[in-house]
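Re-run with default settings, no changes from the original entry. Doing this only to confirm the output is reproducible before filing.
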Amino acid sequence: MTTNTMSSEQWITVCNESDLTADTGLCALHEGEQVAIFKPALADELFALSNFDPFGKANVMSRGIIGSIGDAIVVASPLYKQHFNLKTGECLEDDSASLKTYEIRVDAGQVQLKSNT
């Protein structure tokens, strides 16, 4: 894991792109919050969501199972199996629950999240 650095554009490096494995989550610390980062084989993009499962009340989403339901690429919670849309963070089974999403990019092989500040 690389050290967090901030650029003038307010992006923070959280890991190397080479640290990511298709269909497997990675947990990174971003501005004091645990963030689950995913590189689904079904999409040519990265996704970043809160690592906190609102049903199981634990930081476990990076251990979830990647898949799809209809047109949505989702992660299933490893605890109670609720499905969350990777793009929107919405829970497919319970619209009152969602995960925070983060803007993510790759720059020169570095995975970066947009700063909240």
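The longest strand covers residues 11-16. Residues 82 and 94 are 8 Å apart (CA to CA).
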